[in-house]
Amino acid sequence: MKPWRLGVVVMAIGLALPVVLIGQKVSFDYDKTANFALFKTYAQRKGTPANDQFVDKRITDAIDTELTAKGLTKNDASPDVTVMYHVSLKEKQDISTYTMGYAGGYGPYGYGWGGGWGSTQVMVNDITEGTLIIDIADAHKKQVVFRSVGVKEIDVQAKAEKRDKNVASAVKKILKDFPPVDKKKKK
Asked: What is the number of domains present in the chain?
């Protein structure tokens, strides 16, 4: 392969890599002594909102959709569990460096005659990273029994329909492991 073609291929892979790596990171933890089979009803309570009424509505609607799909019934008067969410936004900088080049030469160990060329490109992008935490608490014991956290880069220029899909997808991933399955009992 000619050196300039190799450089173009390396640069194309380097530019495509960040697109592949952007994704939502999710983690969860839960009270291993809680009996999740007893939880049949839920109510949402105030947590830390996003300070944007449209985003807050999307989040509460997505939580309702996911918990209903899991068989829970909304009951504000006498719930088995209460659900709260917390939103945090953080401005960050994403710094990416791409280097490509060709070094030529003759002689042992790279010393001798010849030449080469190369270039380095540094890209700095301002990004907004969003964190969504969903806490599920036993309403009778008033203790958190399940917490899941999702972190993802936010597309602040997305249209309303895309934001609907992004929030619904994020909540679905965050609540994917609720109720948790005890792997010891599953075997």
From this structure: 1
The answer as to whether 5 is a domain residue is: no
How many Å apart are CA 13 and CA 18, to the nearest integer? 9
Residue 42 lies in a domain: yes
Verdict on whether the full-model pTM lies above 0.85: no
- Starting at the edge strand that comes first in sequence, how are the strands of the sheet with 81-103 ordered? 25-30, 143-154, 116-138, 81-103, 41-44, 73-74
Task: Kindly state whether residue 41 falls inside one of the protein's structural domains.
Answer: yes
| Residue 80: domain span | 25-92+125-180
Per-residue pLDDT of the chain (187 residues; tens, 9 = 90+): 555 444 443 343 333 333 333 468 999 999 999 999 999 999 999 999 988 899 999 999 999 999 999 999 999 999 999 999 999 988 888 888 888 876 655 656 655 555 567 788 888 888 888 999 999 999 999 999 999 999 998 888 889 999 999 999 999 999 999 999 866 655 4
Tell me the DSSP string of 160-177: HHHHHHHHHHHHHHHTTT
In sequence order, the 6+-apart residues with CB closer than 8 A to the CB of 35 are none
The residue with tokens 């659900």 is 83
Q: Report if residue 117 sits inside a domain.
A: no
- Separation CA 83–CA 146 (nearest Å): 10
CATH number at residue 74: 3.30.160.670
Q: How far is CA 111 from the centre of its chain?
A: 48
